[in-house]
Each structure stands twice: as structure tokens, then as C-alpha cells.
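Table S2 (text version). Query chain:
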Amino acid sequence: MESATVEKPAVKAATGSATLADLFPAAARKHGPKRAVLYRGESGEWVSKTYAEVGEIVRKLSLGLIELGIEKGDKVAILSNTRPEWTYFDFAALSAGATVVPIYQTNSPEECKYVLENSDAVAVIVEDDEQLEKIRQIRDACPKLEHVIRMTGTSRDAISLDDLFERGGAGSEADWERRYASVEPGDICTFIYTSGTTGPPKGCVISHGNYRSMLDMVHEVNVLGDDEVTYLFLPLAHSFALLIQFGTFDLGATLAYWERDPLKILPNLAEVKPTYFPSVPRIFEKIYTAATANVEKEGGLKKTVFDWAIGVGKKVRRLERQGKRPGPLLALQHRIADKQVLSKIRGLFGGKLKLAVTGAAPINPEILEFFDAAGVLVLEGWGMTETSTASTIATPEDFKWGTVGKPFPGTELKIADDGEVLVKGPNIFQGYYKNSEATGETLIDGWLHTGDIGEIDADGYLKITGRKKDIIITAGGKNITPANLEAEIKQHPLVSQCVVIGDRRPFLVALVTLDPEEAAKYAAEHGLPGDPAALAGNAEVKASIDAHVERINQKFARVEQVKKVEILPQDLSQEGGELTPTMKVKRNVVADKYASEIDSLYG
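Corresponding C-alpha cell output:
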């Protein structure tokens, strides 16, 4: 087995916190007058709150939860978009000693029900009327759910934020301190639900010690600075966003929240002018398109100048990393290139960006090199929910395009004989909630079996080359289990096989085949040709399957819905190489064989 280990002594936490429960109380004391949060107010202006102000909000909400009857170890779910109130309630629940259970705001009522039931949640905090309606639909099916709390607005069947503030008024600072001081590193901080290869999502059990060690690793390699303005649009139900949240407040930096509208991300970057931007490949791809679309369309001299400027930027960056300065001619060319092109690309990010980080899914290195040429360094990290977010990191001083960096201090990586990446360290999760079988398959002798295939080069950089599992990771970084969707789609009487596609893509599509026998019956009943290829192109057949898929989509979150369907001209078979002897679909074979059909669906 190849291996790579980086051993460094852990650094003292910025706040001195021992857990995530005492992190914000410590942050409020240490960073009191500094700006903690920045967000768009109701009247349209950007509003900020200091650490002292946020600390007071968190204290009141936490005491309100305690007065409501939330005990140490109780599970409290949060169903909301990324917004300041998510942060307030997160730290309020954590400092009350509760285990926080994030739920994606895009989840369907049925998916919310599964997470609430499986986690044994006694309370759920919802963002608004839209999210509350989901809970109304499934509340009777969640007998352990005692409390529904609203972040915004009021209604008879939920406790409002103001109500919770009022309840918290009876508590004291000492009451709050006793509760958060009782939390130990071994206590459970959060359950984060992640999709598996088959079946329903699994709840990753992450302790306070897991996340605290992850923060120490992040601080040791200086991922974040205490003067950063970080713009966050990633869902706080995702471990990547949670780590950014925790790290920002541990250091006393500023977290700027998006407006909860994908169309506002680029305008927000221009207004907020962040210094740090964590994202997923899909957003960098969109910004890349925004930077190049007009040039590609116009062509001619404008494109020639644009391409020349990017080339000059790449030459300068290479020299800088060799410790050299560009000569007089190249320096002049760079000034011209910067004025004409490069500065405008930096402007798309607000113009003050020091570093951007991409994770959760692969990204084309050419896009990274393009931005680097313009002075926007976008680096990759790698990990998973089971590693409390991350295992490797690339830094401005130490990175290599096409790799995901080196292991964090205190973590160890090795490559198993079959190519699987294994990880060990203090950030490795505790297991899957109520699923000892899956835990035993994933954690073996202290090593996390990640399911990713990779290699470690001679310099210690990790390169991810594939996945053992069939999980689809969309361009937006969402993990999706195709098996559940495929099983539903195959319920249509005419459908034989279904393969959902979407890895590194902006949305899901499905390739389906017709069952030869059922297709023959359908053709005879409708006076149609019995040839499968002809039937696959029949408008009525297509409409029937499309309608079936649309009904199925209602059971799934938007990001998990199939947007387009292609009916293949023949069924999958062993003879064709698409099926194993046990009739399992060989996804890679299907994807390669029908690459043109897949591309046309995305065209």
C-alpha cells in the first residue's frame, strides 16, 4: 500500500474552545466588537452584527430551547436555507448541549420525515411558511417530534423566534454556561445525512471532538485568516459549509450570507467583495462562462486579445512561483493584459479575493488555471462527511493542478491494494446512526474506507481518479443515490432498464430501455410497428414515460429530479456488455456506449 502522512503538533484553537458548544460564547468574549455577520436587510441594504450582538442572540435562543425542555443530547433539526438565523439557531442548540440535525431546504416532505424519524428529533426549526408546510404534512408520522419553531413569521402551530426569546428571558448567563460547559469532546455535535450507494440516506455521527480537531487542522495550515470576509451560499446542511461557519467564527472573521437566490450570487460577490470564497465546481463553471461567453460569441480580434491576455497571465504566475520576476517586456505585456482582461475577471469575484476553495465534486483543472492566470487562485480540497468535511488540502504555497492536495496535519492516507483511498485521523466520524452494518463496512481497524479511487504521487499529493460506489455527485456538489430513482422509474410497465446520469453535470437525466415483451404488446394494442427502435421514437410512448417520471419527481428534492429522458433503441444485455451475469447494469459501459445520446440531452 502507498501511504502519505503529515504529522504536526495541533495548534491552540483561536477561541480556546474545547467543543462546538462553547465556541460561540468564547468567540463573543474574545471578538466582541468585531463584525461577525453580514447579510442583505429587508430594506435592501447590507446589515452587519458584531460578535457581541450575535452572542446575545445565541444566548437568548439557547436559554429559550432549554426552557422549552431541550435536554443535553436531544436531537434538534434545522430545515432552512443558509441565512444568519441558521447560524444563530445552530449555535443556540449546540450550546444547549443538543445534537443538531441539518435538513436540506430542498428536501421533500417525505425526505424530511425520514430524517426526523431516523434521527429521533424532538424539535425542528423551520425557515418560513414553505418549510413549515412540509412539516405539517408529515408531523403526525413523527411521534417523537414535540416542538416546531419558526425562524421567521408566526403561526398557531409553531413557536416564533420572538416567543423563544421571551422564554429565554427567564434564564441566566450562569444557566447557559452550566449547560455548554457540560458538553465534552466525546459528545455528539451533529448528525449529517449523506446518501449511500443503495437505500435511504445514512446519518453520519460526528462528535464535538471530531469537528474541533478538524478546525485545529484548518487553522494550522492557515486556510482562513482572522481578517477574512467569507461569502457563503453553500447549504449549511452540508459539512463543507458547516466547517466554514465554525472556522470563521472561531477566528473572529466575517461571514457574509447570500440572498437565497442563485441569480444573486455573482451580483453579491461584486457587492460584498469577499476575500475568501468556498464553492463547488458548478459556480466556478458559471463564472467561467460569464467571463468567456461574449468573447467566444464575438470572436475575431476581441477573442485574440482575450486569449493572449490569459496566456500572459499564465506565464507571469509560473515565474512568480519559481521565485522570479517577469522581464521588462513581459511585465509591460502583463500590465496591458491586466487592464484589458485580467482585472475584469477578478472583478467578477469582487476584486479583493485572496483565495477560493472548491470541493464536493471534481473540477476541470483548465478552469482553475484560467482563473489563476487572472489572479484568482482557486484550490481544491477533498474529503467527505465521514471525515468531518475534509482530509486533504491544497494551499497557495503548496499545490499541484489536477490533485486535491496533501493530507491535513494529524491525518494519514493510504491507498489500498484495490486503489481505494483510506483515511485515519481524529476527524473521522463515529459511525452511522442506527446502522452498525454500514459502519462496520466503512470503518475497519480505525481506517475509513472512502469508496473513492485514487493515487498518491511521489510528492505526496493525492489524485482522485474515480469512485467505487455508484453515487452521483452533481456539478453543484450534491450527492445523489441513483438506485432509488431508477427503481421508481422502472415501475412503468414499458420500462426494462433505467440508468440515471448526472456525475459532474448540472442536472440529472435518465436513459431508459423498453421491455421487449411489454413493448410488443403495446405495439399490437395500438396498431404500431413492433420494432423496438421504432417504438422508442414514438411520441405517445415518450409522453407516457415522461409523465411517469414527472410524477416520480414529486417525491424527490429538486436537485434529485430527472430533467430529461432518452429512450434507447434496444434493451441492455449481457451480450452487449452492459449487464453483468447477475443483471446488474455496468454504468461506465452504458455511459461510454451512449455518450452522444447523453451529450445531446445536455445540449
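Notes on Table S2: The two ends are 42 Å apart (CA to CA). Confidence is low (pLDDT under 50) at residues 5-12.
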